[in-house]
Amino acid sequence: MFQFDNRIVMTLDAGGTNFVFSAIRANQEMIKPICLASNSDIVNGTLKGNQQSARRAFAEMGEEAGDSIAHAVSLVDGLVVIGGGLTGASNFFMPSLMKELNGKIGKSNGDSFRRLEMKAYNLDNENEMDQFLQGRVTDINIPGTGRTVEYDSTKRIGVAISKLGASKAIALGAYAFAFQKLDS
Question: Would residue 167 count as lying in a domain?
């Protein structure tokens, strides 16, 4: 952030086992960071804590992540892969994340419209994966050729949780990059 930027920036660091909320304005801390236990063991009852608050924290994190992802996928055409320390708790935040992505936005006159132009599919859900892969393929004519080509008109985006872990994903990416450079 630039020093002359006067916006309030709220941050959520959801790495590891804690949520850390903070707010800054013009590079100055507005509040001391607030740290809340986010361990999914609280939600499923194997660790002592307030289950209702933990569930709400995960749901709110999913909603905020869905909002951020919605902005990103409006600019980039690609799959969304979520990784990091909280992926093991995806069953607690993915429902609200997907709801946010596939939700609606309201206008001041009371009308609403879809949040995204495309439908978001949770690729870790078998039924949604099947729907994502199916699409809606039709043949369209290529003008002046007498030929046709298959076209899938379904606008969609896939969201998945990383199964590799950050270290392995980075190592595989580096390996693929190095291997590609050997061929050139």
Answer: yes
| Distance, C-alpha 169 to centroid of its chain | 17
Q: Which residues contact 150 (CB under 8 A, 6 or more apart)?
A: 137, 138, 139
Q: Rounded to whole angstroms, how far apart are CA atoms 23 and 59? A: 20
Percentage of the chain exceeding pLDDT 70: 73
CA 21 – CA 118 distance, rounded (Å): 31
Overall domain count for the chain: 1
* CATH number of the structural domain spanning residue 109: 3.30.420.40
In a domain, residue 71? The reply is no
Residue numbers in the chain where pLDDT is lower than 70: 1-47, 166
Domain with 119 in it: 78-183
pLDDT in tens, 108-133: 898 999 999 999 999 999 999 999 99
| pTM, entire model | 0.69
DSSP-based three-state secondary structure for 76: coil
